[in-house]
Write a structure and sequence with these properties.
two-stranded antiparallel sheet, about 575 residues, about 35% helix, two-stranded antiparallel ribbon, 18 helices
Length: about 575
């Protein structure tokens, strides 16, 4: 059974004490149930309890799946590496979002929940910091450490808001509650993000206990923040420090795992590749402590031979699957010819599950079968993916299933929480930043920074590809040691110029981090979202002919999501202004 680490608090954080003001009714002056007095939260244990509540916000607060840390909808589906699956009528509010037609008036409350959930995280971090400032019981060392954790988390919440909505409201623990409604959404978010992360780096230890953030998580997130601002030289400095000196919160030197699949195995949580993650737990009384944000995303199946028994909302796209095609030299097709008829992956689109099908026999990057479930290939330790039998509507979502962060058959009821409506509540930590991500961001900084080195960028990319090329860990057939497909992968021999290196690094992020929610935000920060996503729509619409007709990505608008109209209505348009184009 998995050890429970960070449980969502049942405490009503920040509740006000009720007082019935009557000279003869002093006995009625009691705190409401589940509230805490200031004296209780001024202790080290009390403040740590508030901090645990802040950690819990990483996993979402209001039960909406957009709040999850994996950004399966806003990062992967909107980024073109996955399609909204199941069928057109189920969770239909996702349909316009995938078509880049999101509305500020959100019928399913998705963007409003994301907005509220991240600001709840900010609020909880601020409560921790206020409690620390008012405490007389903490040592200087404890105050510094607890403040560092709270500010690291606050920096993350603001970063998440910034990359989704751009123009956001920012405030710290010194701003009075009555002043919040007067703050406009054009604050300098990057300034508070960088200040928080710098403080966390300066005040957090390297070893801080599994599940808690440490100084190296702050350094990695700082490097990422610099990268998003195109401060490449500064980003390089931060990544250099992480790569040379960084350790996990439980003291393991950062390294790539030998086996790519073990990144997504609950039995291998808190491993050497984890830089910043969200802890998960089962059988705590609430499936929200498990990966509730993912419960819709397992392959669509109704029997005992597959995980979750639901629901198929997250289906890798044709374009994404084709991207794993390699040439005979084992390198990706950087000229984007992978979508051509000669190179496109053979799939079982339109083939019934009881009809014969022969899998693709041409060269493929071996990571495809750790990322994408496809017909005839072993699906973890379950069965060979049966194709259409695990797809609710092929003509709507395509033929593929997700494979990352799916639990194994052998883990049912030990690494799953079956106490709710579906078996699909897995208890594996979700990794927000992992070491391969750091290496590839560092490679990008090496290419773009004036002081950077193409040779160093080449080395970082090849480290990632070398791990993928370890044939011992390729997907095998169930009944033999034979590879499940024709896997061909090699390292780059050189980066002849910056343009080639840039293309290689960007494509490597797509292959390595596929389906992990990074893609859309990468495309936006690179300034190529319109080009890439309109090409994706054009190609995908040749397969899913009724899904994308007339859809397009609009430059100057779709780089960010709409500010929820509900928040504008509450605050006033003169304070909270809508993003351009909505």
């Amino acid at each position: 059974m998995k050890t429970f680490k960070f449980k969502k608090p049942s405490l009503l954080l920040g509740a006000l004490l009720l007082a019935f003001m009557s000279c003869s009714d002093e006995f009625l002056q009691v705190a409401p149930t589940d509230s805490l007095a200031d004296a209780q939260v001024s202790t080290k244990a009390g403040i740590d309890g508030l901090l645990i509540g802040t950690y819990s916000a990483l996993n979402g607060v209001f039960g909406n799946r957009f709040e999850g840390p994996n950004h399966w909808a806003t990062g992967s589906i909107v980024g073109g590496e996955a399609n909204k699956g199941t069928d057109a009528g189920d969770y239909s509010s996702l349909n316009p979002i995938q078509r880049y037609e999101a509305s500020p008036v959100d019928p399913n409350n998705d963007f409003n929940s994301l907005w509220r959930g991240r600001y709840e995280g900010v609020s909880r971090a601020n409560k921790v910091l206020s409690a620390i400032a008012n405490s007389t019981e903490l040592s200087a060392a404890d105050a510094a450490r607890l403040s560092g954790e709270a500010r690291m988390l606050r920096g993350h919440f603001y970063f998440d808001l910034k990359k989704h909505f751009n123009n956001i409201v920012v405030f710290d623990e010194t701003v009075a509650a009555e002043d919040l409604a007067t703050l406009p959404n054009n604050g300098d978010a990057w300034a508070i993000i960088e200040s928080d992360l710098q403080f966390a780096y300066d005040n957090l230890p390297g070893v801080n206990g599994a599940g808690r953030v440490n100084k190296w998580a702050a350094a990695a997130l700082m490097g990422k923040a610099k990268l998003f601002q195109q401060k490449f030289g500064e980003a390089k400095t931060w990544f250099d420090d992480v790569i040379a000196n960084g350790v996990t919160s439980n003291g393991i030197k950062y390294a790539l795992l030998d086996d790519y699949a073990q990144i997504y195995n609950a039995e291998n949580d808190n491993n050497a590749e984890v830089v910043f993650d969200v802890e998960s737990a089962n059988n705590t009384g609430s499936v929200q402590n498990a990966n509730a944000f993912d419960d819709l995303n397992y392959p669509y199946n109704t029997g005992p031979d597959g995980p979750g028994n639901c629901c198929g909302f997250f289906q890798p796209s044709f374009e994404m699957a084709n991207s794993y095609r390699t040439g005979a030299d084992g390198l990706p097709l950087l000229d984007k010819s992978y979508n051509s008829p000669a190179n496109a992956l053979k799939d079982d689109y339109g083939v019934e599950a009881d009809e014969p099908f022969v899998e693709d026999a041409d060269p493929l990057d071996p990571r495809i079968d750790h990322v994408i479930g496809r017909r005839g290939i072993p699906y973890l330790d379950w069965i060979e993916h049966p194709g259409k039998a695990w797809i609710r509507d092929q003509a709507y979502g395509g033929p593929y299933s997700p494979k990352k962060y799916i639990y194994y058959r052998s883990q049912e009821n030990s690494f799953t929480d079956g106490s709710s409506w579906t078996r699909g509540y897995a208890t594996m930590n979700y990794t927000i930043i992992r070491f391969a991500d750091v290496l590839l961001m560092a490679a990008e900084a090496e290419i773009e920074a004036p002081s950077g080195s193409l040779a160093t960028a080449l080395d970082y990319v090849n480290q990632v590809r070398r791990r993928a090329a370890n044939s011992e860990y390729w997907v095998k057939e169930y009944d033999s040691d034979a590879n499940a497909a024709n896997y061909v992968i090699s390292e780059y021999t050189s980066f002849p110029n910056a343009d080639f290196a840039r293309d290689a690094v960007r494509f490597e992020r797509k292959l390595e981090l596929g389906e992990e929610g990074h893609r859309f935000f990468d495309l936006v920060r690179w300034g190529v979202a319109a080009e890439e996503l309109n090409a994706y729509l054009a190609y995908e619409s040749t397969k899913l002919v009724t899904k994308f007709g007339g859809a397009s990505f609009t430059s100057g608008k779709n780089e960010y999501f709409p500010i929820p109209q509900a928040q504008i209505d509450i605050t006033g348009a003169e304070i909270l202004s809508q993003n351009p184009g909505y």
